[in-house]
Amino acid sequence: MLGLPTPIIGLIIAVFVLVVLVLRTRVHAFIAMLIASSIAGLIGGMSVNDTLGAITKGFGGTLGGIGIVIGLGVMMGSVLEVSGAAEKMAFSFIKFLGKRKKNGLSQ
Fold it and tell me: Which of 59, 60, 64, 15 is nearest to 36 (CA)?
């Protein structure tokens, strides 16, 4: 072909498939990433078990890194909602920005 190593070809195809799945077919991004990473691994020469293991390890590492931040954010949001602070903040933003921008749209 172009003399490119197989993993590079797999990566290029996987990125193309990812973009097409997300933008054209409206497949959920998570599913599209699973499909694209599977394609990259298999075309790149990994076995099915190695590909699934790499996907699992990568997902676990990412979740471990941001899981605490997401968990704390969810807890903080729940506290704001239960205490009524979220509603107070919303009314304060509307008062500050004006009613024209209350839906996030400047008219």
Answer: 15
